[in-house]
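Interim report, section 4.2 (structural modelling).
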Amino acid sequence: MRSLASVLSVASSTGPASPRRGAGGLAAGVRRGARRSVAPLLLLLPALVVLVGLRLVPIVDAIRLSFTNWDGFGAPRWVGLDNFKALVHDQQFTSSLVHSVEILLVMPIWILVPYAIAWGLHAQIPGWRFFRLAFFIPVVISPVVIGIYYGMALGPEGPFNAVLHAVGLGGVARAWLNEPALALPIVIAIIVWSTFGIGVLIFLSGLASLDQDQVEAARIDGANGWQIQRHVVFWQLLPVIEVWAIVMMIATFTAFFPLIFALTNGGPGTATYTVDFDLYQEAFTNGHLGYASSIGVALMLIMAVIGVLQLTLLRGRRG
Amino acid sequence: MTAVAERARPGGVALSARVGRTAKLVGVWLIFATLALSTLYPLVFLALTALRSNADYASNPAGFPSAWTLQQVAHAFSQASMGRYAVNSLIVVSVAVAALVVISCLAAYALTLFEFPLRRTILVVVVAMMALPPTVLMIPIFKVVLDLGLLNKRIGLVLVYTSLNLPVSVYLLTSYMRSIPLELLSAARIDGAGPLRMLWSVVIPLVRPGLLTLVTLNFLWLWNELLFSVLILPDQNMRTIMVGISMTQGEFQTQIGVLAAGLLLSMIPPLLIFALFQRDLARGLAAGAVK
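Predicted structure of the assembly:
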């Protein structure tokens, strides 16, 4: 949830806070007065120390460590490109990558579910206030809690199986998360469940700023509900949909470690390993911090690709 | 949607559009209700499970307890140390949130209301940092803490937490500070106020709603955080609540009621924040999405 939410603000930011609009007389005056003073640098100092030390230097270090062999105790030993050569042939890594891509494949559902729900709430379906409250609960609960809860609920002796037995479907009951073929689909379903609330929020704020004149004009022109939805609302909400899609792409590769850690711990076997989970396992369970750093570099490249995609979308929208 | 189809089928073409619309509404409403049930059920399930014996749970996990007991809750505090984990979280998260507020206020103030070389560049870098989730940097961040000798020290996690949320916090505050009328600052300057004085008596009062959002969001994110707390405070006496409950889950003899009680305890602060600041949270989370 944390990473998801912070990712959210990234994807939604349309570039750096632009400098003061129309820095006219007064603005310039305030600024000029401070120009020769060291005040702004002193004010910035604590933030710069923290950010340089724990966010910028680590980027460089992440790349450097990926060329080393390091177990976390001794000094990292330079091994050149060995880690990357091994990474290409690492089945656990490639299957983790495939799992993350499989999570991405549910993107249409990821978009449609919150979109449809936001639309229902916006149209003030009876009880919409209650629903809005209820749908927000998974957003504020830690993925750790969500993972442990679903582990209990879907466990062999859990309430889900109990209900199946009660309605005469006892034959279907099983240890749901121990089935290699079912574990990943179930994890994906839980991921969708745990994130749709944020999507609803984003789409709701998009719907709130909808240009009602266009909707009204279309209605007068005789468009039916579906046509209005498809030709007017959809296009107005497209930027919001893009933001949401980018958020979920970034989250897919970096945000679901806590949920998986608490829910399946990657299992059964490696059936629910995602890339970020694989990175953690290699580094901190197997003690291959140097090798795992090459997974980190792979993730950085993926983030760079998503970043380029984001900028392209932004350009297209503006141009 | 199957509900809609089933309802619409018998009448066929004869059904009036109005009945069709009502049926559709009922169908949609049922979907909404099911989804709401799925988000509320965890709270009910965990509460019921925490308040019954294990044997009672095993006999009927989905139903109501046949006998109520507070023993599992008591065990969660006495044997499973949930109370200590919660206090550990509270200490680290409160200090980190306080640090975040102070540091991001100073930085956002400098970046929006002063002119100096590289101002724009720093802003761009801060925003760009938000595009690289810290998860990717877990190894080098761990190494920094290790090299500083701060492993298993609370201050180590406080530092990391501050760095995790600082870019977002600075960004959030700059968006609030940019709407401050400069006339106010000029007036204060003419009155001879220094930079800190202006921040304290002019800027802060104007961005109070932003600060509230900042505090609630950061508290929520950091309270729920797992990865870095498991890396930096693995020591059992230091564990945060999220590490505590996930480790308790793995322990062989853990009773499900004890774990349920721990989960409930860990949900109190987020749900409290949710109840009190729902509107600020929603606004903060959706911030900028539709700018």
